[in-house]
Specification:
Blueprint: H1 7-13, H2 17-22, H3 25-53, H4 64-69, H5 104-112, H6 116-127, H7 132-140, H8 152-160, H9 166-178, H10 192-198, H11 206-216, H12 222-232, H13 247-253, H14 269-276
Helix pairs in contact: 6-7, 6-12, 7-9, 7-12, 8-9, 9-11, 9-12
Bound molecules: fe (ii) ion (2 copies).
Residues 141-142, 152, 175-176 line the site of one fe (ii) ion.
């Protein structure tokens, strides 16, 4: 990794030109080495922060091999759910208890928050006149990442399958695979974020490639594709979002079980309970 040394900043850090002039050659060389190491440490910390969270840190893009090498010694697996890991905005601490019969809105408020990305994505879908099924899919497409990140398209579709229109579930399941494949005609380019998360030159797993080819030919291809299009533009740190604009769409399409999510005896109830009670040791 190249480290740039700014001579003005370096001289200033030693007390200015006069102070440097009084230093022996060896002392100047030592000081320069110290300065370079500090700069390198900063650059490494910045790169590692980017590798950990996939955020858009400035600087050189990592290669896929560098991302893979970063697994060694990592404090956690990258596919672990957000609820199970501390973050800068959400350190591990006691969670507010869920109501007895929790609704989707309760999960948004108490377990998925701040949910900025999905709310922004759904707001964009609404603004651009997408169908209610697509708006709903955008709203829910990544929330399962509270539980698990790896293969979140499939996990997310499974979590919602008993309660959602089939097209919305289809869109959630397959948006994950479609994210790797540009579709200029529909306004979707390969995301820069993926260069940072997966590394430059990353080849999607063969099962992702096969899934993409199947979905590309499917009559509902556009449903998950529109989720990816709205996905791209939903990382604005300054946007203010809320679940309120989607209350009616949720009411029309989401089959809220009267016993509450997690307690309706459905095949996915345990997934909702795992999100409700992430501190249970077993
Ligand atoms: Fe996603
Ligand atoms: Fe997303």
């Amino acid at each position: 990794m190249p480290v740039d040394i700014d001579p003005t900043a370096f001289i200033a850090s030693l007390g200015g030109r006069a102070a440097v002039g009084c230093m022996s050659h060896e002392a100047r060389a030592d000081a320069l080495e110290d300065h370079a190491i500090r700069k390198l440490d900063e650059a490494v910390a910045q790169t590692q922060a980017g590798l950990n969270n996939g955020s858009a840190t400035p600087g050189r893009l990592p290669t896929a091999a560098e991302i893979e090498a970063h697994i060694d010694g990592s404090p956690n697996r990258r596919g672990v759910g957000n609820l199970f890991m501390p973050s800068a905005t959400r350190p591990i601490g006691r969670l507010e208890a869920m109501p007895k019969r929790p609704t989707l809105a309760d999960f948004f408020r108490l377990r998925f928050e701040p949910a900025n990305h999905v709310l922004q994505s759904a707001a964009r879908a609404m603004k651009t006149g997408m169908t209610e099924e697509v708006i709903l899919a955008c709203l829910l497409h990544d929330v399962v990442q509270a539980l698990i990140k790896v293969d979140h398209g499939w996990w997310g579709a499974q979590l919602f399958e008993p309660y959602l229109p089939e097209r919305s579930t289809f869109a959630i399941r397959y948006h994950q695979a479609l994210r790797f494949y540009p579709d200029e005609a529909n306004g979707y380019a390969y995301p820069d974020l993926y260069h940072r998360m997966f590394g430059v030159g990353y080849p999607p797993e063969p099962y992702i490639d096969e899934t993409y080819k199947m979905v590309r030919k499917h009559k509902w291809y556009i449903e998950p594709r529109l989720v990816t299009v709205n996905d791209l533009y939903a990382f604005d740190p300054t946007a203010t979002v809320s679940l309120d604009p989607f209350t009616d769409i949720i009411g029309r399409h989401f089959k809220q079980p009267k016993e509450g999510l997690g307690f309706d005896g459905s095949p996915v109830a345990h997934m909702w309970r795992s999100i409700a009670f992430p501190d249970h040791p077993l």
